[in-house]
Amino acid sequence: IDNDGEYGPDTGVLHGTAVAGLIGAETNNGIGIASLGWEVRVMALQTHDDEGWATYFDMGAAIEYATAMGAQVINLSTSGPYSTIIQTPIDAAYAQDCVIVAAAGNEQSDLDVEPQSPVCNDGGANRVVGVAATDDQDYLAYFSNYGSNWIDLCAPGVEMLSTWYLNPTYGLDNAYGLGDGTSFAAPLVS
User: Fold this and answer.
1) Which of these, 41, 134, 156, 186, has the minimum number of CB atoms within 10 Å of its CB?
2) CA dist., res. 160 & res. 59, Å (int)
3) Whole-model pTM?
C-alpha cells in the first residue's frame, strides 16, 4: 500500500519479501531463486510499518511470540539506536536454545563506539550472532557497520538476488530483484 502518496508502495513490504526469499525460497525447482536452506519453514512476523519504522516494543513482542511458537532461529534484519528494551526477549529466546541472528546495520559505523540494537544486545554472553556484509570481492561492504565486540561473521550483502514485491500497478513487475544491505547478509546466516 502507498499510504503517503510518495514513490509507490511503501518500503517495508519490499524489505521483508526479499529477506524471506533469501531464507526460504524453494530450492531445486527451476524457478526464480533458491535459498541456502532446504525445506525451511518461515514464520513471517511484521514488526515494521509500511514505511519501514518499528518500535523496540513491537520487535520484543515478535521475538517473544516466535520463541513461544518454537522458533529455532530468529532472523532480525533490522538495526537502530541501542536500547535495552529488547534484551529480555532476546535473553528468553536464548534460554530456549533459539539462535538469534542480527544484521550489523548500514551506517559505516564502528559498533564498539556507537552500539546499535539488536546486534549489540548480546547480554554480555554472545547471545546474538552479529552479521556484517561483504561485497563480491569478499571485502567488508562499503556501507556495513563493523565492530570486533559485536560482529561474529560476515556474509554476502551486495547485489543480492531475491524475491521481490510484485505489483504492476506501481511498475514493480519483476518477481525478483537485487538488494544491498546487512539485512540481506543476515538471512544467509539464518
Assistant:
1) 41
2) 25
3) 0.91
Identify the residue whose cell numbers are 538476488. 161
Q: Which long-range contacts (CB under 8 A, 24 or more apart) does 137-140 make?
A: none
C-alpha cell at 129: 550472532
Question: What is d(CA 85, CA 176) in angstroms, rounded to the nearest whole number?
Answer: 35
CA–CA gap between residue 7 and residue 43 (Å, rounded) = 29
Secondary structure of residue 79 in the 3-state scheme: coil
DSSP 10-37: -HHHHHHHHHHHHHHPPPSSSSS---SS
Residue 180, number of CB atoms within 10 A of its CB: 18
**Residues facing residue 100 across a β-bridge:** 74, 128
At residue 132, φ and ψ (nearest 5 deg) are -95, 170
Q: How many CB atoms lie within 10 A of CB 44?
A: 10
DSSP letter, residue 106? S
pLDDT in tens, 103-155: 999 999 999 999 999 999 998 789 999 999 999 999 999 999 999 999 999 99
Query: Which residues on neighbouring strands pair with residue 102, listed in sequence order?
Result: 76, 130
